[in-house]
Design goal:
Elements lengths: L1 E3 L12 E4 L14 H9 L3 E4 L10 H5 L7 H16 L8 E6 L1 H12 L6 E5 L18 H4 L5 H10 L18 E7 L8 H13 L10 E6 L10 H19 L6
Parallel strand pairs: 2-3, 2-4, 4-5, 5-6, 6-7
Antiparallel strand pairs: 1-3
Length: about 260
């Protein structure tokens, strides 16, 4: 895991932290300069963390293979472990910890919300694969069976159903007080890679299942970007709008202070 923060940052339970993950398709997550991350570290005194989790390609082919198909749960376990490391080592607290990811990383965020809603303060999921038992029926979806498996295969379908974000929205059965973190999903009306229905269905299920319960006080929201696609080639103006919405949501939800 890569951690970035100001050299003189004061770290502790009140420090905001933004944890990013992808964990799929043998992709390698490495730190790089990004103006929005620099702003988060400078103006929010935040910690930016990149989790290197199984399913990615950071440690070779075995690392990738141990986070796909019938081992996909390892990806989510690693992300939970990264969050717990940040909390246990006093970089932040669950109340100040935000998570985000895009596409396969959006699936990661949503699955982790369902499995450990107590661990996170806010969640941002961009253009995520939220229905993993029907993804192969939409454009580009069939090519993802290398990582997720095929819903047409009975064994793989039963495994997919256990972590599919859309099909596992529920409060923890053993806890009558835990609510879901403040959640903001992003999708785009012209996304032909991960079609918008993934996010539409998930937010509808979350608002139906969770939103009517008095314990759910945190917001559950969807933002649909007009005239935009999956992400590649997005103009600077739309990226600025997206990051403005994202960080404003985190700031409001976690009660953070913006310092000039």
């Amino acid at each position: 895991m890569f951690l970035s923060h100001k050299k003189k940052a004061v770290l502790g339970k009140k420090t905001p932290c933004l944890l990013y993950g992808y964990g799929g398709f043998n992709s390698i997550a490495l730190p790089s300069f990004s103006p929005d991350q620099a702003m988060f570290m400078k103006n929010f005194n935040g910690v930016y963390a990149i989790a290197n989790i199984r399913g990615g390609g950071e440690y070779g082919l075995n690392w990738y293979n141990s986070g796909r198909l019938l081992k996909k749960q390892n990806t989510f376990d690693d992300f939970h472990a990264a969050a717990k490391y940040l909390i246990d080592n006093n970089y932040t607290s669950s109340e100040k910890l935000s998570i985000h990811g895009s596409s396969n990383g959006g699936l990661l965020v949503a699955a982790c919300l369902n499995q450990r809603p107590d661990l996170y303060g806010a969640a941002i999921g961009h253009v995520g694969v939220m229905d993993v038992v029907r993804f192969n029926h939409f454009p580009a979806g069939e090519s993802w069976t290398s990582d997720y498996g095929s819903p047409q295969n009975v064994t793989q379908f039963e495994y997919l159903l256990k972590y599919s974000p859309l099909h596992n929205v529920r409060f923890p059965e053993s806890d009558n007080t835990t609510q879901y973190p403040a959640t903001l999903l992003f999708t785009a009306d012209h996304d032909d890679r991960v079609v918008p229905s993934h996010s539409y269905k998930l937010i509808a299920e979350m608002q139906h299942t969770l939103g009517r319960d008095k314990r759910q006080r945190n917001p559950l929201l969807l933002l649909v970007q007009a005239d935009a696609g999956h992400g590649a080639g997005k103009p600077t103006s739309k990226r600025i709008e997206e990051y403005t919405d994202m960080y404003s949501f985190i700031c409001k939800s976690l009660d953070l202070d913006f310092e000039e």
